[in-house]
Amino acid sequence: METLVVDHPLVAHKLTTLRDVRTDSPTFRRLADELVTLLAYEATRDVRVTDVTVDTPLAPASGVRLARPAPLVVPILRAGLGMLDGMTRLLPTAEVGFLGMIRDESTLQAQTYATRLPEDLSGRQCYVLDPMLATGGTLAAAIDFLFDRGARDVTAICLLAAPEGVAYLDEAFRGGDRPIRVVTAALDERLNENGYIVPGLGDAGDRLYGVV
Ligand code: URA
């Protein structure tokens, strides 16, 4: 599995403010949105394109357009929704599917509570949005779901990742037939006993949307 930690001063700057406990929800939402667009730029380096020719006012010019079928962007509810606009700004022709997953805080196991995705994902490149790669359980379940429907490859875009989560995904998707990548702004130190990333940024859903 490839893990790409995007090393860029703008990414580091935005992430630092996201981590800061004093950052309020409106600022957090705006910065998360901007950060995702920067991560999406790197995450889509291998997006499939087809060759086309267009006419400039002067002459024909060769170029590319995104290939069909369009990429599928899948935010994991609820916190992944805070990453959707930042992603579709860069990939406006992508389709969007939704996966509702919740982590049982006592067992830390992921459960699916909502799905709105095409039945057949054959040949699709999928981009899963989940701000926090913590234990890896939620993301692995979501990625499994996409491969079961035929996804060609899956890239997970996460604001932050823990080494434990990266190792979990690496193990779960070892072998070449289900290719995955993780693109993140930082690989943090560890998980604490409650499954939170340390130093992390706290509960991403609560910081985006408030405690509900
Ligand atoms: N989910 C979060 O929102 N934060 C963490 O640190 C881990 C999981």
From TrEMBL:
Q: A Gene Ontology MF term for this entry?
A: uracil phosphoribosyltransferase activity
User: What reactions does this protein catalyze?
Assistant: UMP + diphosphate = 5-phospho-alpha-D-ribose 1-diphosphate + uracil
Q: Which UniProt keywords apply?
A: Allosteric enzyme, Glycosyltransferase, GTP-binding, Magnesium, Nucleotide-binding, Transferase
Cofactor note (record) = Binds 1 Mg(2+) ion per subunit. The magnesium is bound as Mg-PRPP.
Residues involved in uracil binding: 197, 202-204
Class of the enzyme per the UniProt entry, highest EC level: transferase
Pfam families associated with the record? UPRTase
Which residues are noted in the entry as 5-phospho-alpha-D-ribose 1-diphosphate-binding? 78, 103, 130-138, 203
How is this chain's activity regulated?
A: Allosterically activated by GTP.
User: Matching InterPro entries, A to Z?
Assistant: PRTase-like, PRTase_dom, Upp_B, UPRT, UPRTase/APRTase
Q: What is its EC number?
A: 2.4.2.9
Pathway this chain belongs to: Pyrimidine metabolism; UMP biosynthesis via salvage pathway; UMP from uracil: step 1/1
Q: Which ranges carry the Phosphoribosyltransferase domain?
A: 5-210
Q: Which cofactor does it need?
A: Mg(2+)
Residues folding into a coiled coil are none
Name the job this protein performs: Catalyzes the conversion of uracil and 5-phospho-alpha-D-ribose 1-diphosphate (PRPP) to UMP and diphosphate.
Q: Which family does it belong to?
A: Belongs to the UPRTase family.
Please report the name of this protein according to its UniProt entry. Answer: Uracil phosphoribosyltransferase
Q: Which organism is it from?
A: Microbispora maris
Q: What is the lineage of its organism?
A: Bacteria, Bacillati, Actinomycetota, Actinomycetes, Streptosporangiales
